[in-house]
TrEMBL record:
This is Acyl-CoA-binding protein. Pfam families: ACBP. InterPro entries: Acyl-CoA-binding_prot_CS, Acyl-CoA-binding_protein, Acyl-CoA-binding_sf, FERM/acyl-CoA-bd_prot_sf. Belongs to the ACBP family. Transmembrane segments: none annotated. PROSITE patterns: ACB_1, ACB_2. Residues 1-41 form the ACB domain. GO terms for biological process: fatty acid metabolic process. One of its GO terms (molecular function) is fatty-acyl-CoA binding. Gene3D superfamilies: 1.20.80.10. It comes from the Eukaryota. Keywords: Lipid-binding. It comes from Trifolium medium.
Amino acid sequence: MQEDFEEHAAKVKTLKESPSNEDLLILYGLYKQSTVGPVDT
């Protein structure tokens, strides 16, 4: 699973055009959830 995450994280960095702000927020949220864990506050 870690390999898949790293592969997809690298793909995001090489996108030909910049994602919308909404897409960037979604990607950031997924990144934080996968690296830090769910927010439980």
